[in-house]
Amino acid sequence: LVILVVNYLAYVLPASTLTQAEVQTFLKQSVSELRRLRSTKAEEEQWDKFSQRTRDMLRDIIPQLEQSANTDDPVSIETLYLARDFLPKMLDDARQQPSQAERKFDVHMDRVERVYARESSWLDQIHNWPLLVIAVIDGVLVIVGFMWWKSA
Question: How many Cβ atoms from other residues are within 10 Å of residue 106's Cβ?
């Protein structure tokens, strides 16, 4: 019964934490979109939609980054700066031309990409590792249960 409840919760509850790779992808895509809007001289309505969508996502990401930021992990600190300090400013001041915040964003993103490229592990590629752990435990319990049942 416990196994069924845990499995149910694992499937029903959303995986709210993003991996470093997912956060970096979001940040890079956001800046690419910002630059595309600027180069095509997008209308104010497009900018507002993009800005609101990006701010909504940042509102969810930033607390996670603040909680996981660690001085022993330079990527976590740099990623926090990108999401909290630079991208929100860029949404306001980089619509017409590259801003100081955008230049700083590029410097910090370059650092993140260099460090992350050296240190990325296979675990970073697993998007829903808690579900993987639960599946492995379930498999072990099923095998042990079957062996116990067969020996009885």
Answer: 14
